[in-house]
């Protein structure tokens, strides 16, 4: 395994750890908000729904970014750009 492959593997693991923290915090905090809203709220859910909805959308984007792994896309684009530059320089 080359150094750049090791760096990519570490970065990927670090990104996954960040995603897992995001999921964990989302679950814990939203469970607290829903409980608080149900206990204190007068007519059922009032505001916890909106926090969960918007935060859930942000979490979904985080998950999609992890699954797509935009950094690999960036690496491929950079490799393609370098290859084009080398071909133009050789001509």
Brief synopsis:
By secondary structure, this protein is mainly α. It is built from three helices and no strands. It has one domain.
By DSSP (H or I, 4+ residues per run), the number of helices equals 3
Please outline the major beta sheet: none
Low-confidence stretches: none
- H/E element sequence: HHH
Q: Structural class given helices, strands, pairing?
A: mainly alpha
* Number of beta strands: 0
**What is the count of structural domains?**
1
- Average pLDDT, all residues: 84
Principal-axes geometry comes out as: elongated
Alpha carbon gyration radius: 21 Å
Residues in β-strands, percent:
under 5%
Proportion of residues in helical segments: over 70%
**First and last CA, distance:** 34 Å
Layout of SSEs?
Elements: H1 3-40, H2 48-68, H3 70-90
Helix pairs in contact: 1-2
Keywords:
91 residues; 3 helices; 0% strand; mainly alpha
Commentary on this structure:
With 91 residues, this protein is mainly alpha-helical. The chain has one domain. It is 88% helix and 0% strand. The chain is built from three helices and no strands. Helix 1 packs antiparallel against helix 2. The protein is elongated and about 75 Å long. It starts with a helix and ends with a helix. The relative contact order is 0.08. The mean pLDDT is 84.
């Amino acid at each position: 395994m080359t150094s750049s492959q090791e760096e990519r593997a570490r970065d990927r693991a670090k990104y996954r750890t960040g995603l897992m923290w995001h999921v964990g915090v989302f679950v814990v905090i939203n469970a607290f908000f829903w409980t608080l809203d149900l206990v204190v709220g007068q007519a059922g859910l009032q505001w916890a729904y909106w926090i969960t909805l918007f935060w859930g959308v942000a979490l979904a984007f985080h998950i999609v970014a992890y699954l797509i792994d935009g950094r690999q896309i960036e690496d491929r684009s950079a490799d393609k750009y370098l290859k084009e530059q080398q071909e133009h320089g050789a001509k």
